[in-house]
Amino acid sequence: MSKYMTFESQSFPNRELLIDTLVECGFASPTQGTDIPLEGWDKRNPRTADIVIRRGDVNGQSLLGDIGFQKTAKGYVAIIDDLDLAYRLGKDFVIRLQNSYHEAAARKMAKTLGGTLVKERVGKTIKIRVKF
Amino acid sequence: MAEIEFTIDTETGKCETQINGIQGSACEKTAQQLRQVLGAPTTDRKTAEFHIKPQTKRRVGSNE
Questions:
Q1: DSSP string, A54-108
Q2: Which residues of A touch B5 (CB under 8 A)?
Q3: A116-126 tens-digit pLDDT
């Protein structure tokens, strides 16, 4: 081993990878822009985001509000209504998204380096080896 | 053969990466590519293998 790094932040640094991840997770058409107003949020607390999944585009969930991702210095941070997280999407929604994002990052690295990828699941751990 | 190993804890979302089989600046270049997709790491440490210098062997004494 020559270098060891861990990544724990609940933000998504790379826009392109985040979009790929959202599409893979079934959110087919995220809206992209800057400070897009989120619909369905309390008018006393209006929110904006740079990547938006419209609540009407989330099949079978009847979300109260749009899902947004706001750009910050550390990457894109999810803006999701607490009630949607608790009763519809699941409290672990962002963690599941993170897991998919990390898998997408491994695939991107394999492609960038011209390598091969082997994925293995052991219990609650996913191991991915990119050989190049 | 060089390798990057990703270990994803699906309960916490934490991702560990290990770059194996390459040293020095080549390793740092791969680490930089990882940072571009995964962001700033919480832990970032070089291991002993990182500092190993590639050795060149010279043949001596063959004057036939």
A1: -GGGSTTT--SS-EEEEEETTEEEEE--HHHIIIII-TTHHHHHHHHHHHHHHHH
A2: 127-130
A3: 999 999 999 99
